[in-house]
Every structure is written in structure tokens, then in C-alpha cells.
Specification:
two-stranded parallel sheet; about 220 residues; mainly alpha
Length: about 220
């Protein structure tokens, strides 16, 4: 369906989530136990590299310039497998108290996962495993409500607080809130930027998304 909306050169493929994955974390967790350090390493690496190995096996020869992985808002095993499969990490966040409160915790969790994975990878027993070093690109704010072409006053303090976190960048571009446009996107399976709307509000959302993409490309050197 997405291909029907594309114009010009290029290729975009989407793999959608499925309700059948709702218990996948529990299924994967049962495979982590190991009676010896060698078995524990094998199980940990096998579970956490499932997505990375799948991408390498099934997509490496497909000619993709980039693979984007959208994760659920938690730090369960599925999210961890996505992080281990990634070269870069971009964190979307709403500019509100609860969303920004968890950013520091998330960054500590990421650091701990990378350390744990690399500790297992350095164990000499079993097959050799390369260490990982995903780069955190920073935070991109979403659900932004604008007034006068900038975030409303209720959101600006939270944006400012996140910018104070040492070592963590914040994208200048952001994704605007528009319930009318985004509400049906999942139902039709077509990104908002590809659907035709004749309104200034739609163009404003598209411009914001394109600005985020441009900043992302610069950040990863694409």
C-alpha cells in the first residue's frame, strides 16, 4: 500500500507490529537461563542478538540504505534486541513531566545493557562475539503544540530541562502534534507524509517531519 503513494526513485518497505508479539518478552525471558558461564553467555547472546542476526541474514543483501526500528515505550527484551541491532539510538520524548523524568533512567539503562552485553561478549567460552557501541544521537521531541511558530509555554520548560542533561543532545527540529492527521495513520498503514491533504496544518506537520529527517541524516553522516 505504501508503494502506491511513493513518487520518483527510492524504495520504502514497512514491517508492521502484530498482536501476536504481545507475549514475546516472556517467551524470550525463559531462554536466558544457563547452568554454566558458557551456557549463560550463549543464551544471553542468542536471545539479545535475534533481531540483529535476522537483519544480517534477511536484509543485508537487499540494498537498503537504512533500517529504522521503532520500539515500544519500555526497556524490555524486545527493545534491548533493537538496541543491540542498532548503530544509533534516537529517543523520542514528549515535553511533559513524566516523559522527561524517564530520560535519565533510560540512558543509564542503555549504558548498563551495553556493558552487560560486552561483558558476555568478552567471555572466551563459546563462539567469538563482537562488542557493541551504539551511538546516542539525542532526543527528538514529539507531540509539540505550537503558538507563534514555537512550542507553547507549558512545554518549553521541559525542553529546557532536557537540554541541561550533560552529554545528551536535543534535536532542534521536532514533531508537531496533530490528532486529525495522525489518528488514522495506523489504520491505513500509510505514513502521514505520504497522504495527500490540502491544508496548511498538514504542510506544517510535513515540514516538521522533514526537518527532523534532515537533522537525523546529518547526525548519522548520511
Amino acid at each position: 500500500m505504501v508503494k502506491d503513494y511513493l513518487r520518483g526513485r527510492g524504495r520504502l518497505d514497512l514491517i508492521y507490529s502484530h498482536l501476536g508479539l504481545i507475549n514475546v518478552d516472556l517467551d524470550l525471558a525463559t531462554k536466558l537461563a544457563g547452568a554454566t558461564i558458557g551456557q549463560a553467555k550463549k543464551n544471553f547472546i542468542n536471545v539479545h542478538r535475534r533481531l540483529a542476526d535476522g537483519i544480517a541474514r534477511d536484509l543485508a543483501s537487499s540494498g537498503y540504505d537504512m533500517v529504522l526500528i521503532d520500539c515500544p515505550p519500555n526497556f524490555n527484551i524486545v527493545t534491548k534486541t533493537a538496541l543491540i541491532a542498532s548503530d544509533y539510538l534516537l529517543v523520542p520524548a514528549r515535553p511533559d513531566y513524566l516523559s522527561t523524568l524517564g530520560i535519565d533512567y533510560l540512558m543509564r539503562s542503555v549504558d548498563r545493557l551495553v556493558k552487560d552485553y560486552n561483558d558476555y561478549a568478552s567471555v572466551q567460552e563459546g563462539a567469538k562475539t563482537d562488542v557493541i557501541a551504539p551511538m546516542v544521537l539525542g532526543i527528538v521531541f514529539t507531540m509539540i503544540q505550537e503558538y507563534g511558530q514555537k512550542p507553547i509555554s507549558a512545554q518549553r520548560p521541559f525542553i529546557s530541562e532536557v537540554k541541561k542533561i550533560r552529554g545528551l543532545g536535543v534535536f532542534k527540529a521536532y514533531i508537531k502534534r496533530n490528532d486529525t492527521l495522525f489518528a488514522n495513520a495506523a489504520q491505513f498503514g500509510v505514513p502521514v507524509v505520504l497522504r495527500g491533504y490540502n491544508s496548511g496544518s498538514h504542510q506544517s506537520v510535513v515540514d516538521g517531519l522533514e526537518a527532523v529527517c534532515s537533522e537525523f541524516k546529518i547526525a548519522v553522516g548520511a
